[in-house]
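hey
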């Protein structure tokens, strides 16, 4: 268990395939390099989550998400709603690129993505040069952790890199919506 205080160490950890625990808009998240299959499998094992469920990617900007989504399949009438919600705490389920790894999409042909407004996460994604996997920091079926102290108790036996920082102003995990229909999947 390592506690990280600066972004340079976080980027090194991500490049080495580590799983990080970091603040997001409302809860702490577990994250890693989305292109590193072993890092994603380690994250799923920590969380006790099935790969079939898929994961969320969190990014600084829409361009970072383009390698993972099939932009041309996003309906034109849904684009204004999607893009006007970002940056912010709205996760959209969008068509996945055919090259998007199955360890991110799970059993789906879609992928969950969000452009964050959390200053620290934006900076991490910019410095890392791509999105991060972002899933709430909890064991499946349990409440997400809301601070580092709580995280160190819940994940005491796990090898995580901890990123200091304050949570955003949200009071619950991001809303999830379908980018094809606009339907709310998680409020």
């Amino acid at each position: 268990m390592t506690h990280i205080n600066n972004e340079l160490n976080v980027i090194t950890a991500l490049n080495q395939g580590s799983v990080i625990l970091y603040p997001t808009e409302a809860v702490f998240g577990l994250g890693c390099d989305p292109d590193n299959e072993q890092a994603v499998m380690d994250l799923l094992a920590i969380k006790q989550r099935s790969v079939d469920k898929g994961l969320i990617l969190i990014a600084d900007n829409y361009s970072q998400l383009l390698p993972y989504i099939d932009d041309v399949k996003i309906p034109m009438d849904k684009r204004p709603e999607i893009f006007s919600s970002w940056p912010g705490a709205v996760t959209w389920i969008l068509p996945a690129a055919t090259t998007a790894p199955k360890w991110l999409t799970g059993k789906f042909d879609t992928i969950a993505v969000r452009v964050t407004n959390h200053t620290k996460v934006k900076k991490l994604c910019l410095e890392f040069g791509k999105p991060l996997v972002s899933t709430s920091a909890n064991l499946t079926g349990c409440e997400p952790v809301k601070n580092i102290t709580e995280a160190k108790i819940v994940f005491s036996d796990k090898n995580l890199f901890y990123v200091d920082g304050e949570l955003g102003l949200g009071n619950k995990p991001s809303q999830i919506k379908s980018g094809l229909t606009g339907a709310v999947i998680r409020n």
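The CA atoms of residues 35 and 101 lie 7 Å apart. The helical segments are 7-15, 37-47, 62-65, 79-84, 102-105, 119-128, 148-154.
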